[in-house]
Amino acid sequence: MRAFVWYEDDSFLHRLNPLTKLAVSLPVVVIASISFEPVTPLAMAAAALLTTHFVGRVPWLRLLRPLLYAGPLSFGFFWSGTVFYVGPGSGPDDPGFVLGPWRLPTAALVYGLAVGSRAFAIFCGSMIFVLTTDPVQLVLALMQHLRVSPRIGYSIFAGYRFMPLLQDELSNIRAAYQVRGAVRGGIAGRIRELFDYAIPLLAISVRRGERVALAMESRAFDALPRRTYLQMSEFSWRDPLFLISAVVLLSVLVLRR
């Protein structure tokens, strides 16, 4: 869970308005989804990783940690897209590659790489937004600029905050089991522990959810037509500069063919 918590810093990307980074992430998802070859999505993924590291000053270790989730997922898309491909070019005339009992046509490999690279590009592009965006600033930007209801905005923020809290609670539950000597060994024991942890973790989540709901209701969200904010979400000269740079880079990647 902690792999997806934002990295706190004061870089160029961190100073951008969250809506600016969100506006750049959306065309990345669209372009990657409609790409039928793997080069463009992989180039977008590389550009996103380099931007997050150098412009967002996110360390490589913190940046590559989420890729432990994206790697197997992308490989699964690649493998299923390659093995079950039945489109043009999959006939016996294409020798392709032989992998044990399977014959993989060239068209199938290209299609599998395209599908896998789409998921990888979308994941890497989203890390620009996720790792450099303060959830508080995101909620403020949604409410102040997009007129999102405070009930919805603060509910999103509360749900996001639950991720690291649940990780801490899971660590406490595991430590309690270790103190009582209830830790099981082996693969079967590990699987049984997951079920043992699930019930107390669910109970804790329900209690925390009820407290958050009562706290939000006691603050009377939407009771008045207008509300004041302690912090204001503003745009600066960095936002149009980042937008123009992103548009130019995406245009070069799309129109290079």
Number of strands: 2
CA gyration radius, whole angstroms? 23 Å
**Number of spatially distinct domains:** 2
The amount of beta strand, in percent, is under 5%
Helix/strand order: HHHHHEEHHHHH
Basic shape: flat
Spatial strand sequence of the major β-sheet: 1-2
- Helix/strand-derived category reads mainly alpha
Give the fraction of residues assigned to helices. Answer: 55-70%
Oligomer: single chain
Q: Uncertain regions: pLDDT < 50 for 5+ in a row?
A: none
Mean pLDDT: 82
Q: End-to-end distance, in Å?
A: 39 Å
Q: Helix segment count?
A: 10
Largest sheet: 2 strands, antiparallel
Describe the structure.
By secondary structure, the protein is an all-alpha fold. It folds into two domains: 2-133 and 237-255, no CATH class; 150-218, no CATH class. Helices cover 68% and strands 2% of the residues. The protein has helices at residues 12-15, 18-33, 39-55, 60-64, 67-83, 106-130, 135-145, 150-179, 186-218, 238-255; strands spanning 97-99, 102-104. The protein has a two-stranded antiparallel ribbon with strand order 1-2. Helix 3 (39-55) packs parallel to helix 6. The longest helix is centred in the C-terminal third of the chain and has 33 residues, at 186-218. The radius of gyration is 23 Å and the shape is flat. The chain starts with 11 loop residues before the first helix and ends with a helix. The model has no long low-confidence stretch (mean pLDDT 82).
